[in-house]
Specification:
207 residues; alpha+beta; OB fold (Dihydrolipoamide Acetyltransferase, E2P); 2 domains; seven-stranded mixed sheet; two-stranded antiparallel ribbon; 6 helices; 44% helix; globular
Amino acid sequence: MSRSWPSGSRAGSRRAARRRRGPLGYLGDLLLAGVILGLLALLAARLDLVPASKSSGRATVADGDSIAIAGERIRLIGIDAPELGQTCAGRDGDYPCGKVARQALVDLIGGRAVDCSGWRRDRYGRLLASCAAGGIELNRRMVESGWAVAYGGFEAEEAEARAGGVGLWQGSFERPRAWRDAHGSAAEGRHDLLSALGDWIRGLFGG
């Protein structure tokens, strides 16, 4: 049998707990909140004040989410494609999904000039950017076609690709991040706001 307690009793318990914490507990909470708010304010200021880096021209495709334009290494932001050495399970057996994803990006670009814009760099110095070729947004289209997964963006597009069983979703596969972890490849953070804050803090300390 469930037992309901008067709301006054619950409020009294909360007040008693707050009293037990004492003034140092309150001070710690205030300091933590101030630090978090300060970091968010600094990040917002960076978003507003740091100009976007732009690269345009012929692209060399390294893999399904990485290209280079005139020596500028660029990582398509918000997505994660299989690594070149990665294999996946398809309807007809295993296949080199990393190479297939790379070819999918090559086909999307179609030899046209690529325009990229971004303001962040990852820990490897690559520009995290949104890119387009011939009016096609490459980041979004790679996820829509199923040859990349969401990685801080494009969750709705991933859900549609999964439901449609296209690209990687025609069979089973390890997410690229899990594959990298299992094979000792370089670690890479997601491209979300928390990762942006971490990248910015590392930049402050030269990390």
